[in-house]
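Discrete fold record:
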Amino acid sequence: MSQPIGKTRWAIAEGYIPAYSTGPEPQFTSHETACLLNSSDQDAHVEIMVYFNDREPVGPYRVTVPARRTKHLRFNDLSEPEPIPRDTDYASVIESDMPIVVQHTRLDSRQAENALLSTIAYASND
């Protein structure tokens, strides 16, 4: 693909990781995911800042999405500079040095009747 698709700055205004889950792990672990698509011919270096309603932001969390690949990044798995707290509202801003596409997905498995939400993130007008 000669022209990458996407934007370099995205926002997910809604984030929440439940403190517990039901069902087998890791498939049914309650989680938030940023699905990152890099359609370009170059690796995308991504930084994520996480914002809270009652404390200073945390980050950047750094990940690389290889060229012509996708990465489904669970916020539950972010650990450096610190883990994302459970049962806490948060938002995130995702910046990349290459245009990427970002989709937000949540699995809430606190009860046997699971809930799944997925939506495209907000793309800024770079």
